[in-house]
TrEMBL record:
Pfam families found in the cross-reference section: TrwC
Residues annotated as domain TrwC relaxase: 27-71
Xref: SUPFAM superfamilies: Origin of replication-binding domain, RBD-like
Name of the protein in its database record: Relaxase domain-containing protein
Length: 96
């Protein structure tokens, strides 16, 4: 499902050419960049109106709903000395 969303849905139901960065494909398709919206953004460390990045979409759609900044959370936890398994789980939806 993740590949479908990144290939087609986020570029206006068109097909995204292979190896084309998401933002470039959106511009070619005439689709504006996605923006974060909603009341719960502060809890996630997101800013209203901030552009949604391809990495954030990959985390949300491709990794069973991981935190949009799961990569950064995992790197921070590894730097603090957590084991890889615990660092990975820190970006999971049920992490607390």
């Amino acid at each position: 499902m993740y590949r479908y969303h990144l290939r087609e849905t986020v570029v206006g139901d068109g097909r995204r050419p292979a190896r084309t960065p998401l933002r470039a494909a959106q511009e070619q398709a005439g689709v504006p960049a996605g923006r974060w919206m909603g009341r719960g953004l502060a809890v996630l460390g997101l800013v209203p109106g901030e552009e949604v990045t391809e990495a954030q979409l990959r985390n949300l759609f491709g990794e069973r709903g991981r935190h949009p900044y799961a990569d950064r959370i995992e790197a921070d936890r590894l730097a603090r000395g957590d084991c890889p398994k615990e660092a990975f789980k820190a970006g999971a939806p049920d992490a607390g």
